[in-house]
Every structure is written in structure tokens, then in C-alpha cells.
């Protein structure tokens, strides 16, 4: 028997729970977060919350699943038919935009990784690793053709992650060091594009 689609109120409450959970998990980590904190943030009672999600683990899994798709889309879009340097710089720019626009999601992901990724190791060892291998092969192909300077393709992807996600995960430190008169994301975008151009433009 097919399930009835959720009502507008049910959809609204589910989104309120996930929004509140994102705040709590990104600030407290999985272990520090409680259902009471999430229910309070969502403006619901704890029994009402449990009607929508049976456990803290279920809420966290829903957030991680949604996040992983958003996080991987820019890498999926790396076009083998495009200009190699432009494609890599576009990927880095999109990753930086995600850090600017979704800082809580970035910290949620970082917290999960720092805990050993117990709730998403399957996705990391499966979907994520497969996608990185696929795009690393594209990068290596461009290098073999002399269209990119030769560097380790997987570590290039790691470096882009580090360069971009730093600005979400360490936002307080970045803004404290730069001061109030700087836009860290605009300046970071310019720096990353220059750095990638100098690293990847074919020599000679």
C-alpha cells in the first residue's frame, strides 16, 4: 500500500527539525547534541519530534545524506570536454561558494570526519571514493596530454577541499585575523584562482 504524501504541516515541521538540528549538530557535534535541544530549536515537543524522526541518528543521517549530494555536485560537474584549467578553477570557486553559503553544513561534515565518520564511512568509501577516482582519471588524462602541469590528481582535489572548506570551518579565526574591512571569500577566490593558474598552467 502506497504511503500518503506528507501534508504541508508535516513538511514544514520536518524542515523545522532539520534546520534546528543543523544548528545544534554544527555547534555541538553529534555527541554533544540532544533531541531536547533540537526540539526546542524547532519549536516542537520532543514527542512531536519523534513522530517525524525516531532518533537523533535518523535526523543526523537525513542531514548528512542531503549534504553529501550538495557537496559532491561541483565535482560531478567537472567536464572532461571543457578547458582543463578553467574546469579546475570553476570547481574550486563552486566549493568556495558552498563554504560561504553553507557554513553550518561544512562544520557538520567536518565534525563527522573528526569523529572517524562512523555514520557516513560507507558513503566515503563508496560514492565519494568512486567519484574522486573518476575525476582524478580525467585530471590525469589532461596531464598526460600536456594540457595541465603534472601534479598528483587526488592530492590536487584534497588541496582544493582544504583551501575552500577552511573558510567555513575556521570562519571565526579567518575573520579575526583579517579584520572587519576584508571580505574573506572574495579575497580567497582571487588567491585560489591565481594559485591554481600558476600550479596548473602547462609549462613551456
UniProtKB/TrEMBL annotation:
A Pfam family recorded for this sequence: TetR_C_3
Family annotation (InterPro entries): Homeodomain-like_sf, HTH-type_TetR-like_transc_reg, HTH_TetR, Tet_transcr_reg_TetR-rel_C_sf, Tscrpt_reg_YcdC_C
Lineage: superkingdom: Bacteria
Residue ranges occupied by any HTH tetR-type domain in the UniProt entry: 11-71
Keyword DNA-binding assigned: yes
Chain residues forming the annotated DNA-binding region: 34-53
Entry keywords, A to Z: DNA-binding
PANTHER family, A to Z: HTH-TYPE TRANSCRIPTIONAL REGULATOR RUTR (PTHR30055:SF196)
Protein name: TetR family transcriptional regulator C-terminal domain-containing protein
Organism name: Gemmobacter denitrificans
Lineage, highest ranks first: Bacteria, Pseudomonadati, Pseudomonadota, Alphaproteobacteria, Rhodobacterales
